[in-house]
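note to self: dont lose this again. the chain is below, predicted strucutre after it. 225 aa total, dont forget to put it in the shared folder this time
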Amino acid sequence: MTTVVTTPQLQGIGENAYRRIRTDIVFGRLAPGRKLKLEQLKADYGASVSTLREILNRLSSERLVVAEGQRGFEVAPVSIANLKEIAALRQLLECRALEQSFRVGDMEWEGRVVAAHHRLARMEARMAEGDRSHTEEWKQYDWQFHQALISACGSRMLIDTHAAVFDKYLRYQMIALSYRGDIAEQEHALLLECALKRDAAKAGEVLTRHVAGGVEHALATGTIK
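---
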């Protein structure tokens, strides 16, 4: 190990590069199956080759990158089976977290949920009008709303695990450019209503439909084999 990579500056560079590469994978800018050549990544993300190896190994442990031994790294492929598995895990984690969050959420939690839904609803309205220029921003607001719903669950591990699974689910939606229009918008509004009423049972039902509908819509595009 060199002393260079342990300096605060390079730790910052490495963390920034990790976040950028991870975001580019999740949002589909680095496509499934793409070879990740270290020299090209060095030019694109401004990190050293040794730092990039550490980053790619980290992403490999998150199953966003596949390590190919001596052949290097590539972006993890996608499949119908994997999408269904990720969706089922997301549903399980989120339903559990919703139940706990609804039970103990206070007024500050309600405020976070309402604010997150407002931002999402405004962006969904733009999407409904045919504006697709802010697709990534729309999905970020989607992520923030679902995270707000479970933010009072009391378990950092549950929140972090859900976030990691949600990112993988989001990756499929971005690859498929999956936008379900009014149906998803109505489901989000119902989830907000359930949160304010503390109706965890109904929220679980809505969420189950929401996730299943997202999977069906993504598969219907034919972009995932």
